[in-house]
Amino acid sequence: MLYNEPSPHETRILTRRLVYPQAEPIGYEQYAAQQGYEALRKALAMTPDAIIDEVKKSSLRGRGGAGFPAGMKWSFVDRKSPKPKYIVVNADEGEPGTCKDRIILENEPHRLIEGCVIAARAIGAERGWIYIRGEYRRMIETMDRAIAEAYQQGILGANVLGSGTRFDLYTHTGAGSYECGEESALLESLEGKRGNPRLKPPFPATSGAFQCPTIVNNVETFSAVPDIIMNGGDWYAALGAPRNGGTRLFCLSGHVNKPGVYELPMGYNLLRMINDVGGGIRGGKKLKAVVPGGSSCPILKAEECDIAMDFDTLAKAGSMLGSGGVIILDETTDMVKFLYRTMKFYAHESCGWCIPCREGTAWLKKILERLDAGVGVSKDLDMVDQLAQSMFGRTFCALGDAAAMPAMSIIRKFRAEFEERIRSAQVFIPAPETRPLVVL
Amino acid sequence: MTFSPQLEAKFADLITHYPEGRQKGALIPMLLYAQDEVGAVTPEVIAEVASRLNVKPVEVEEVIGYYTMLWRHKRGKHHIQVCTNLSCMLAGGEELYAQVSKKLGIGHRETTPDGQFSLEETECLGACSWAPAVLVNYDFHMKMTPEKLDRLIESLGSKQ
Ligand SMILES: Cc1cc2nc3c(=O)[nH]c(=O)nc-3n(C[C@H](O)[C@H](O)[C@H](O)COP(=O)(O)O)c2cc1C
After folding, report:
1. What is the pTM of this model?
2. Smallest Cβ distance to B129: which of A172, A173, A259?
3. Residue B47 CB neighbours (<10 A)
């Protein structure tokens, strides 16, 4: 199913086979009739190195959040290792503001399967898992049906399209945990354990699933691969911005007229995204701020939004492109409440494995809760900033950073709003015994 | 303890998905699928799954405490999850949660006495562009309004 109409401003590569409202997923027959699995046939005639080179040339960067170059990640796998090699698809899709992997899982499962088999060829993998968040059960069922079709067609199994190599692919359900989207926690979860992150290095390419060399990529990353192999890395790179190849799915949500998931070239201007693609701010209101790539990305104020949406430009502006979740806030948005809700999320999702994150997120939530309730004090503002700073970079995985970045950026960029809340609220504090500290 | 033939077939297949000797990989999926059938991860489910995968019961206990979808007490026949995370909050998710809570007389992770409904205030469900989102068991309901939500609950209640 597609839940929003496409926009005429889109560049449809990844979504080119989808027709709104796409009531049923694209099955094997239809996929094959529209060049489906031709890229795989082509890849099977290529050497693994040639496949990796093409992906490197495409400057495809990870769509799960960090934007790491996919071809480079694949080249880290030691193909000569005697251990089995594995492919893991990250379909945990948990970053607030992000709802794009489901477009592929729900509508075009064979695209993802094709991307996985090509990647398996590139690194010599014999098995793969698609780790899908538990709430996406219907999508797991869709993927399972497509996987069964692919086995029937000899695309998966003992002899992939007669190439003499084996590749098995399975779905694996999560059971409710944002942290399990972090790749090393995901691997722990795949092994049947609590999703606590691993110490890195070693990275998964050296020691991943079941301690074997593994590549973990996002759904959208793998799904981009068939077109790259079909049309060449240079073609894909040219669709986007320098060092940021191709198109990506942007998830527009919040105060816009036409929220939805849209496929746009990397480097697309954010203001145009809001106004042309998203139909502008709802109710004729003014833009206040944008969270450009999911809740962990530092916020951009309205005046910072005339910017190209690619990994490097956003990093230069002190933010991140992240997972493509663009949350648009109008002038009426209460930033104190917005940050409190963000911290409530991270405190809930912190796995508790490392202390800076477990304590940091819990305290950030408590302090912001009282600020939001109107019983905060001025020194709380510096405390939020300091807590976030002390957590940043000091945790096993990036969840600590993911919580610290919105905290620091929102409290710095909208400090006046927090101060105003404290001032106006203190008027209503009637007696000393109800002073803020009791809320602790 | 035995499960339905369909679930037994699913488990038999699932166990083959993990490398030799690493069948523990099937643990979390098995617990979730068993819960779907039994209604909760009961002590019997824990013992059964532990013995089938040849792991200690404590290894099962420790994952139950971690994953929010695994419940030790029974969920309702209709488990309603209302997202109140950022995009849904901006679209009225918190008000929807309060509305269901009032209508059903239950709070976060509680079940109605008749076992029909349970409720959960949930984190991002991955439907941000079509907010606010509600998940009933495994079915998504997007772009919810107070009226649509009332009608949804009434239609679920009348299904018995
Ligand atoms: C707390 C946390 C949550 C994450 N959640 C996801 C997720 O839901 N989906 C995803 O693809 N990547 C997620 N990531 C990023 C992964 O760790 C990893 O970078 C990614 O799967 C690599 O694939 P890519 O290079 O194709 O993006 C998360 C990272 C962190 C720190």
Report:
1. 0.97
2. A259
3. 13
